[in-house]
Predict the structure.
Amino acid sequence: MQKILNYILTFSFVLFLTFMGISYFFKEEQTFSQNENRTLQTFPKFTLNNLLDGSFMSDIESYINDQVLFRDEFMEFKTDIMLLAGNKDINEVYIGEYGYLLQKVLPSTFNYEQLNYNLDCINEFASKVAAPVYSMLIPSSFSILQDKLPSNASSIDELEVIKDMSSKYPEITFIDATTNLENHKNEYIYYKTDHHWTTLGAFYAYQAWHNADDKDLDSYDIKEVSTDFLGSLYSKVLNNNTAFDKIELFYQKNQINYEVTYNFNQKKSDTLYDFSKLKTKDQYQIFLGGNYPEITINTSNNNNRSILLFKDSFANAFIPFLLNDYENIYIIDLRYFNKDINTYLEDKDIDEILFLYNLYNLSEDSSLRKL
C-alpha cells in the first residue's frame, strides 16, 4: 500500500511539473505586476555574449519566477504557511501589531555611506547658493511606531541617525519633524500597508516646517477619498488578512487658486490630485499624479515668496500644505531630473530651498550627485 502511495505522489509531482512547464508556452507574458508594483522579467533575448557572461541563465531564472502560473496565489499561500509557522518577518517586512506592516531595515543593511555622501552633496550645494537651505529628514513608520513591531524585532534606530546627522553639516538648517510625529504616534500618521506617511503625518511635518501655532486641523476640510488602499508593503507579503488603508485629502478652508505645470509646461492642471489613480494599485499616486522630474506651482498669492523643494515621494502628500504660503513653488525630483541645476536656478528668484526626504529613501538614492 505504501509503495502504491509513493507511486501516486511521484506521478502527481511529475504531472504537476509537466503542467507548469507547458504553461509557459501558452500563458501570455505579463510585463508588470500590479500587486508588487514592479516590472516583471520577460523572456530574454539570446546572444552569445549574454550566454558567456551568465546573464542569459540569470534572466531565465528570473523569467521562470516572474511568469509562473498562479504566481500571486502561490505567494499568498507561502505567506499563509509562514504565518501559521509563527514567522513575523516575510520578504523584509515585519508583520506588526494592530494590522501594521513595517519595513525591516537593520543596521547591517542600512547604507550609511550613501546617506553621508548625499548629505555632503546637499551641504556643498548649500554653500554655493544664496537662498537658505533646509533639510527635513522623515523617519519611517518602524522608527516612530516601535510599539507596533513584533516582539524581539530588530531595526535601525533612525531617530538616532537623524539626530546625529543634524550636527554634522553646518551649511544646512535641519528642521525637526521627528518630535511632532512622535507626539502624535498614536494617531493615523503612517499607512498600515504602505511605506509612506498618511496626509495627517504630512500635516504634522508641515506644522514643524511652518513653526506657527495658527496651523491646526481646524484650518482644513478633510475628505476621505479611498477606503480600499493596499500599499507597497502589502505587495511584498500578499497577506489576505490585511485590513485596507484609507486615504484622506486636506483642503484648506481659505484655499487660494493655483495652476500646476509638469515637466517644463508639458502638462497643466488646476489641481494637485489625480483621482484616476484611485482606480490603480498604487493609490498613493493621487498626490501629484505620481513622481515627475519637475513641477511648478503658481498661486494667486501676491507675497513674492518662492520655495524650491527637492524631494522623494514622501513630499507628494506634504506639498498641498504649502499652497497658501508661497507665490511660486518649484519642485524637483532628482531621480528623474536630467537638466543642469544651476541653469534651472538662473532665472528664478528663490527665497528658500528645502530638501524633504524619508531617511531610508535618502540612504538608497544615488541621484543627489546631480547637485
Observations:
- The two ends are 73 Å apart (CA to CA).
- The longest strand covers residues 220-229.
- The chain has twelve helices and 15 strands.
- Residues 88 and 95 are 5 Å apart (CA to CA).
